[in-house]
Predict the structure.
Amino acid sequence: MKGERCAGPKCTLLKRNYPPGVHGPKGKKRSTEYGQQLREKQKAKRIYGIFERQFRNYYDKAIRQTGDTGQIMQQLLQTRLDNVIYQVGLGKSRGQARQMITHGLFLVNGKKVTIPSYQLKTKDEITIKPERTKAKNFADLEKQINEEKIPAWLHFDMKTKTTKILNKPTGSELDLSFNPRLIVEFYSK
């Protein structure tokens, strides 16, 4: 190999499971409670693609309502127009769904809506604009939309290309990719 140097502990070819330098062998710092709460909040913000002020407003709305604040905040995030378009499968990502909404491709209860954060209510109907149904984005809707992946609180009718909000999502139907309890603890300080 490289002579006597590789026979000892300073061999450059050995892989160590810690970073180089004086502080290396100590390992990683443990995350604090605050750090874990902050990480969960940042994760949720990235998932839904929203900024801090808007996220804080969702928390403020949730705290004013009676019930579990974390669950109410998740319901508010799940019933955003851009998220519903993504959940149904009309958009490949929340970002694409957001762009399609701002371009005016959808009608909510017969009215054009160009606000991705539009808050949907029970029994709202989302339709694709009639002149846009032949667009490239909606050409292969049968292949694009997987009926098994649509949440139980949403209904998509393939014939009329209409999405209907049946009810608010409940505990088991909510997105479990982040912990809302940690977010509520973060903001309640």
Observations:
- Residues 74 and 176 are 9 Å apart (CA to CA).
- DSSP finds seven helices and five strands in the chain.
